[in-house]
Amino acid sequence: MTKKILIVGAGVAGLSAGIHACRNGYDVELYEMHNLPGGLCAAWARKDYTFDGCIHWLIGSRSGSQFNRLWREVGALKETKIIDHEIFMTIEDGSGKSLNIYSDLDHLQTHLLEMAPEDEIPVKQMIDAAKTMSKVNMPLEKPDEFFRIWDIPVMMIKMMPLFKVLGRFSRITVAEFLAELKNPFLKEALALVLPIDYTMTSLIGTLASLHSSDAGFPEGGSLPFARSIEQCFLELGGRIHYNSKVKQILVRDNGAYGLLLDNGSEVQGDYVISAADLHSTLYDLLGGKYLTPRIKDSFANLSLYSSAQVNLGLNTDLSSEAKKLVVRLDHPIDLGCGPNRYAYLTNYSFDPTLAPTGKSVLAAMVYSSYEYWGSPTSNRERYREKKEQLADKLIKAAVKRFPTIKDKIEVVDVVTPLTYNRYTAVWKGAYMAWIVPPSAGRFNIPRTLPDLKSFYLAGQWVSPPAGLPGSMLTGRHVIQVICRKDKKRFIKI
Questions:
Q1: What's the whole-number mean pLDDT along residues 232-239?
Q2: What gap in Å lies between CA 113 and CA 186, rounded to an integer?
Q3: Model's pTM, two decimal places?
């Protein structure tokens, strides 16, 4: 008899789990609170413009790479044009100094050493580490539960080139590495590429993927990307129920057996997978009954980062202008997490599908706490005022950098951490989950909970900082685990 799997959340993790479950002979129903697939992999239309809320670069964009093969398993990137950038990001300090993060590592090293010859040793260490990482495939396709002691020798041989890199850089944060630099502007500029609380291997991994042309932008952005995965799921016979918010995960005899929906109806299955936000899953859908010490400690003590973004629809063509910039603000903007001295500007004219011909989309982003915004339901007017104030400040910064956009703004769209929470229930709008310190080692949240049978977790919170590739992988892994439990051979394609 075919077993039934119920999945909560049609984000990338939920869709990935659904695809692999269907391919392995399970009957799958997926329940999503929103009316679109993708979860945090989101984009939306405002008049003639499309504003993207997720993808800045996608690991796995190069045909034949490790993650590209995994993306294609779930129907993504098969016919998608990939946009790569020679310059990933340019940081400008407002006084004429600028630093380019070139995708090519040799070009980047030359540029950095011209700017800061006094930092030759740490710069070359970073570049050499990124080159090494660009040549090695991590052991990703098998869940941790499947590794046995006899796998270690094979893994060690494959990973040997990385040992020196991981030994040096997995134990320090970006901030700790930057403390070794002598050049003030290089130190300041590199601190803006990724959050400085991340491990240094995160920065090195990003540089490695750029160097390999494996971190491009899929034309069309987040929503078409999510739609391609949704289509694969539906073609395999999966069923999605949109506008179907789950109110409770039903438990009987210490086993999950179904879902209670917001409309009062119940659905039952053999397994329940939550690919929804971890906090809402554990504290709301399961009533806080199955919390582990690691989960409690993580929510209480690990840092998060969220952002606020102002999207502009412009009646002007910015295709000849720089595409990804970090610009110094005349006046810092503090949204409850310390002063933002820089703003991140993305000129989306590299993707002609996001705006009409001759027009452009420009996004301006700064970091923000969730708490700064208060509650829009309790004080809508104050929330609206704060959004307008932020829009005014970031529009001024954008106009200063791109003077031709003055009086050309047709649409203004403001996104806050509360926006992400409202549409996806993500905890405090933290679209990249926790920032895990190097001292935590290889961090993950077990995909099963003590004393709760037939229930599994997937998504970015299970293996932070997962992003889209890691989320997709957790969906694959959970079905591999279920297949082994049911003594089924896992089928890929």
A1: 98
A2: 10
A3: 0.95
